[in-house]
Amino acid sequence: MSPLKIKKGSSRHSAYDLRDPNAELIETHTLAVSVDNESGVLARVIGLFSARGYNIDSLTVAEVDHLGHRSRITVVTSGTPQVITQIKAQLERMVVVHEVHDLTVEGPSVQRELALFKVQGKGEHRIEALRLAEIFRANVVDSTLESFIFEMTGTPEKVDAFAVLMQPLGLAEVARTGVAALARGIR
After folding, report:
1. Hey, which of 12-16, 78-82, 169-173 has the most confident mean pLDDT?
2. Tell me, what's the pLDDT at 8?
3. What CATH class is the domain 4-102?
4. pLDDT at 13 over 50
């Protein structure tokens, strides 16, 4: 996922583009947050984002250390560099937070997302949906005479691309897990 969304002084000019050409960069960052696994922790972390108007693009949470009662929150967020720095600082100040890692700036990371796609169609649309699923390495996990449910794992961009291609073939519903990410190498 590219951290840069809008470049300062972008060359796109349109009568309908109301963005300030002098606006700061908007970056997307993936944060891995180690927290206590207890009631209300997720609500407090999300409350930090909502109270300050920070955007959450993706959110996943799961227990990762049963004996230590720790969970990992992986959040993909976007904002100016100052906003990203502020988010990290405010997360680090929370009592229930043990560690905050910005995987976007700390080095290479691996990001994956699981998605389910329900595609409804008959005839040539079914054949084309199956062909595209094979190309994208999506698995058929359910099938009826009128629909398929495909399961796919990949980068968020890959999931987005598959959804775009399935749209004209009868894409009826999508469920996504959100991004799970780990830093590469020994850290």
Report:
1. 169-173
2. 40
3. alpha beta
4. no
Give the DSSP per-residue string, the chain.
--SEEE-TT-S---TT--S-TTPPPEEEEEEEEEEE-STTHHHHHHHHHHHHT-EEEEEEEEEEETTTTEEEEEEEEEE-HHHHHHHHHHHHTSTTEEEEEETTTSS-EEEEEEEEEEEE--THHHHHHHHHHHHTTPEEEEE-SSEEEEEEEE-HHHHHHHHHHHGGGTEEEEEE---EEEESS--
Tokens 């590469």 label which residue? 184
Domain boundaries, the chain: 4-102, 109-183
Nearest in space to 95 (alpha carbons), one of 32, 35, 139: 35
Which has the closest alpha carbon to 58: 74, 43, 42, 72?
74
Query: Tokens standing for 101?
Result: 């890692």
Class at the top of the CATH hierarchy for domain 109-183: alpha beta
